[in-house]
Amino acid sequence: MSLALSARFARRELRGGLRAFRIFLACLALGVAAISAVGTVRAAIEGGLEREGAALLGGDAEMEFTYRFATPEERAWMEDTASRVSEIADFRSMAVVDRDGTTERGLTQVKAVDGAYPLLGTPELDPAMPLAQALAGDGTRPGAVMDPILTDRLALSPGDTFRMGEQEFILMAALVREPDNASGGFGLGPRTIVLRADLEGSGLLEPGTLFSSKYRLDLPPDADLAALEDEAEATFATSGLRWTDARNGAPGVSEFVERLGAFLILVGLSGLAVGGVGVSAAVRAYLATKTSTIATLRTLGADRRTIFQTYFLQIGALSLLGIALGLVIGALVPLLLSPLIEAQLPVPARFTIYPGPLSEAALYGALTAFLFTLLPLARAEDIRAATLFRDALSAGRLLPRPRYLAALGAGLALLLGSAAWFSGNLWLTLWTAGGICGALLLLALAALAIRWLARALTPWARGRPALRWALSAISGPREGAASVVLSLGLGLSVLAAVGQIDGNLRNAIAGNLPDVAPSYFLVDIQKDQMQAVADRLETGHEVSRIDSAPMLRGIITRINGRPAREVAGDHWLIQGDRGITYSGPLPERSRLTEGTWWGEDYDGPPLISVADEEAREIGLQIGDTMTINILGRDIEATIASFREVDFSTAGMGFTLAMNPGAVSAAPHSFLATVYAEPEAEAAILRDIGTAFPNVTLIRVRDAIERVADLLSGLAAATSYGALATLLTGFLVLIGAAASGVGARTFEAAVLKTLGAPRRRILASFALRAAILGLAAGVVALASGIAGGWAVSRFILDTDFAVIWPSALIIVTGGIGATLLAGLAYAWAPLAARPARILRAND
């Protein structure tokens, strides 16, 4: 028979309406909508960053140098290339306020600008005034503008004065909006803007101070950004220059959005997998109602291929409808909510219809529908005509024919390949797929175990009719235990894993670190101040420990004579500048894992010691060479040893350490960590801040809280994706409950005929739902704990402990969800008249 005839049969079958496919369509549409919505929001942010790249950057291009200003040659190149150049120095400092005999201090991220700033955009100040007027001050003191968060913390109002270093400033206005804030990256303190010229004599920009200089370029309209980047990097190849331009004005934000979006799409694929379980169950339930139709067609001469094509085309058409519904929802919801989303974003977004994310979601939806509908369709064609009038699908072979297995394998490979391509992370995709497959396998085995256990426990439930009926129903094939455990269990597994990861991150940040972390980091300590700072801390305060080390910053440019990126790829060690220290003797609490230390009296060619874990990740070996650019000068050093460096304590740790003769002559400052009791922290801040105004004190607890806020936002976004997965699982659960109405109606009719009261029948329905929910919750909890442990141990590298409140919520949620779905579909069977039901089944 021809494909056209199969299409005619499929069209006639669809005339019966879509009532049997409501759950099918809802599951598919919800999964596609979630993925397309995430992709649309990501594309909107990327579109906004691309459109506003120059404004976000503060110019058409930016040249950044680490802890130095541009040389005359570099500045001359900028002046020849650009029509205007603006110089900025960015660093941390302490804002100090003296009031009524007390002193208040706050950490601030300072932007020291020139008269040309900003090249693009306009800062928004309160009270409103031009930035140049605000920075001019009141004629006796230089002016400053400050983030409202810091003005509130220090109780400052326009007209009040404060100090930074040795310089006094007058606050002229609050900085409501900073036009180029998206390019600034992560800062530990709120922003303060002053003129760089007003910092002369403040002691804040001394040689060795930790700061970065940024030069914004206003280029001609016809400038070729790519060509200029190549020219700048070739001209100043050994200067440590970092180039950014309007093609990606906020690279940190763009990269974070891309990675978060990719991760959330993989979470969305978990939701589609849950929906796929519902799709498969819906197709199987539908085919079970079509056994008489299939039998008639087979009797009239229809072969297996015709039967398969008929229902494959029908399910395919419905899949396209579900995908289309999901795409419409996923595209329109971000557009409708765009004002609310934009209000929460720190960067501009351009909301419109983006074909790319919608095509990606449609591909995922189509492949998921194909994978989860092929198995029940393939099994249906193997049933003999004589058995189709009985429980046809239960009697078929467990696995389909080899050609269908090959098609399933090809579809799965295409799905994984597409996910890896779109997310840009092969390993994350494979780990996600492995986790989903592992959870599905575990849940499928759990469903079989539940049926076996229910069958084994049924004889023990004598004298408890409701429990006995519940166990008997669960052990049978019609109750849909597999669908319930698979769908709800997978959704709960994702949510449980997210809960365990989030809880352990919070424990690591808020619980474990304060026991071992220092109270303060002291930065920008000058060489001649280090001993005085240590003496003051040791004699005047309850300090248990002080660690100090010289501090330089450098960029790894070459490894074994080759560009560093060719050797190390995208490893974080070569991205941006890294902290470097030097020491003659091996520092205390340092342990070599390989190689030898150079010794206190070494006076030979430059040697370097690298953190063991990072060195092995890159593939370094003892004897390799590494070129580091420090303050524009390239230093080639030979790797002499690997060291164990533990960053988990939030203490002092350097991935790179060199012999003193290699770098000690370069301008640099010292870094110190102070360990003290919490009640002594205020006195330390007050004393050191007063005695050494140029020294910046960073409270570790504040930095940890800032990181915790960022992680909380990431956990919240992931939780939303997991909740979408759980909602899909609940829909599948409803579908399973709805598909079992007929069986429960017949069961209730028989029990009522035998004299069972309605309340006992209802108790039986509730018990079976609670048992299945408990099973799904327990298995999901085991999967979630295993997934949370794996992520915490191998990706986040943190300790792991089960978060029991989250775990109990998961189990309770599983019981509650199945109870709600089961009871919602219990009233109709209880209300049906036994005589009519039994007569219809005679």
Characterization of this structure:
This protein is of the alpha+beta class and 842 residues long. The chain folds into 4 domains: 1-55 and 254-424, no CATH class; 61-222, no CATH class; 437-517 and 700-842, no CATH class; 543-676, no CATH class. Helix content is 55%, strand content 17%. It has 28 helices and 21 strands. Strands 1, 2, 3, 4, 5, 6, 7, 8, 9 and 10 form a 10-stranded mixed beta sheet that branches. It has a 6-stranded mixed β-barrel with strand order 12-14-19-16-18-17. Strand 17 (625-630) and strand 18 form a beta hairpin. Helix 1 packs across helix 10 and helix 2 packs antiparallel against helix 12 (355-380). It is elongated. Residues 391-395 have low confidence and may be disordered. InterPro entries: ABC3_permease_C (IPR003838), Membrane_comp_ABC_pdt (IPR038766). Its main location: membrane. This is Drug:proton antiporter. The chain crosses the membrane at residues 260-287, 308-341, 361-380, 404-422, 428-454, 481-499, 720-744, 765-791, 803-828. It is a multi-pass membrane protein.
Helix-strand blueprint:
Elements: H1 3-14, H2 22-51, H3 53-57, E1 61-66, H4 72-81, E2 84-99, E3 102-113, E4 124-126, H5 131-136, E5 143-146, H6 148-154, E6 161-164, E7 167-177, E8 191-195, E9 211-218, H7 225-235, E10 242-245, H8 251-289, H9 291-299, H10 304-336, H11 338-344, H12 355-380, H13 392-395, H14 402-423, H15 426-457, H16 465-475, H17 481-516, E11 520-525, H18 530-540, E12 543-559, E13 562-563, H19 564-568, E14 578-582, E15 591-595, E16 607-611, H20 612-618, E17 625-630, E18 633-644, E19 656-658, H21 660-663, E20 669-676, H22 681-691, E21 696-699, H23 700-739, H24 741-753, H25 758-795, H26 804-824, H27 827-831, H28 834-840
Parallel strand pairs: 3-8, 5-7, 14-19, 16-18
Antiparallel strand pairs: 1-9, 1-10, 2-3, 2-9, 4-7, 5-8, 6-7, 11-20, 11-21, 12-13, 12-14, 12-17, 12-20, 15-18, 16-19, 17-18
